[in-house]
């Protein structure tokens, strides 16, 4: 993968995604920003509240309105789903479904290569925002 080579390390030729573990959600952290490339940031949190805090900071940094996703046991933790829905200022809130790297179209895109495509933006004044159901 050319990106890995440019960064100074080797990966197997069939590598599709590169992960970089980071801790900062600050504007100065390059991995905290949207990357239209096969590079993802990996954040670890000590608790659900800490994870929501980081996710909320990343949404604010990247611009309110697009997509957030939560993987959880919604039957055992319905309070997490509700809290996430209230806290994330995004138009699309996905629960237990893929969303990264152009994961649009079919519900489970496991056999598709990352497409790096997005639908139209979902910020203020975007016509589709209301049709997708989140109201403020």
If you had to describe this structure to a student in words, what would you say it looks like?
The longest helix is centred in the middle third of the chain and has 15 residues, at 48-62. The chain has helices at residues 2-7, 48-62, 78-87, 128-131, and strands at residues 18-21, 39-42, 65-70, 90-95. The chain is globular and about 45 Å long. The model has no long low-confidence stretch (mean pLDDT 79). With 136 residues, the chain is an alpha/beta fold. The strands form 2 sheets. Strands 1-2 form a two-stranded parallel ribbon. The protein has a two-stranded parallel ribbon with strand order 3-4.
List the helices and strands and how they pair.
Layout: H1 2-7, E1 18-21, E2 39-42, H2 48-62, E3 65-70, H3 78-87, E4 90-95, H4 128-131
Parallel strand pairs: 1-2, 3-4
Any descriptors?
4 strands; 26% helix; two-stranded parallel ribbon; 4 helices; globular; 136 residues; alpha/beta
């Amino acid at each position: 993968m050319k990106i890995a080579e440019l960064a100074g390390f080797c990966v197997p030729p069939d590598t599709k995604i590169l992960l970089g573990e980071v801790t900062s959600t600050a504007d100065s952290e390059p991995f905290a920003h949207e990357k239209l490339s096969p590079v993802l940031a990996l954040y670890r949190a000590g608790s659900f509240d800490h994870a929501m805090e980081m996710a909320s900071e990343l949404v604010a940094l990247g611009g309110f309105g697009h997509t957030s996703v939560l993987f959880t046991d919604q039957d055992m933790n319905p309070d997490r789903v509700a809290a996430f829905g209230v806290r994330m200022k995004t138009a699309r809130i996905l629960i237990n479904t893929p969303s990264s790297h152009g994961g649009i179209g079919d519900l489970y895109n496991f056999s598709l290569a990352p497409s790096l495509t997005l639908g139209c933006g979902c910020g203020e004044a975007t016509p589709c925002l209301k049709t997708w159901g989140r109201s403020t």
